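Do me a favour: review this protein, sequence plus structure tokens, and tell me how the chain folds. Record follows.
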Amino acid sequence: MTVQNDGIRAGTADKSLNSEGESAVSVSKLSKVYAGGHAALTDIDLDIRKGEIFALLGPNGAGKTTLISIICGIVNPTSGRITACGDDVVRDYRKTRARIGLVPQELTTDAFETVWNTVSFSRGLFGKKPSPAIIERILRDLSLWDRKDSKIITLSGGMKRRVLIAKALSHEPEILFLDEPTAGVDVELRRGMWDMVRKLQKTGVTIILTTHYIEEAEEMADRIGVINGGRIVLVEDKTALMKKLGKKELRLNLHTTMPAIPAELSGHALALEDDGNTLVFTFDTTAERTGTTRLLADLDRLEIRFSDLDTRQSSLEDIFVSVVGQSS
């Protein structure tokens, strides 16, 4: 393991970012059926590249946490194969688990232990030699140094979540899972966490995150995966996904209220908003012809005047809602 100048650590694995040729995690034909017959995951195929930030999105109950738990060796699969850095997570459990850091959703840690001791203990669990320097650097990176001697029970919810991240980083993993890491964390701390995530990626750590804050996935992720009903319904490069599925809106602020869209404009994808004061035209940015020129010509012919116009690009949240709706 190496210690970087910015204090965030990576393993000795390949440091190339978003390598097309190597997978940090590979999942093949993975299914999980619980004793009661509930199929939590069905026939999952997924490859996560070394050094990338991969955002796994899905509604509650979609199977995100089950998938992460199986990859991390916490839950046994019913069928299928999973590898981490080339090693089987079932057959080579100890080896793969030492390469993985996990920040779970639940704030579960020893309430009456100090921050320093609980993070140091986590490092020892993976067979790492004691290293006060590494523990100190992690705590400083996460703004926990001033509370190193505080008992966990005395910390706020945001600080407890940072302790979970410190524990996950204590053994210098090559792969880091963040399962809703910023839930209950204020905006300032959230931004600090994502700065830390960017630093980790720069050192070669592969990061897989789930989040309810879709704007974070839009800002942070290299690729997006969507899971729904226990099945992967989409995996796409974020930029390509936004370009492929994103729509643009042309919003026209009308001079006078329009009670209804005239029949002469029925050939355009139009909607009225703001009690008839805003005309919204939706178009595909990838189409050869967007139709905006024809729309503006038709508006001029019908003497429909507008005082202002602006455009809005579909967000990742819009795309996510659309994809999940189509797969339900």
Observations:
- The longest helix spans residues 187-202.
- Confidence is low (pLDDT under 50) at residues 1-19.
- The longest strand covers residues 23-33.
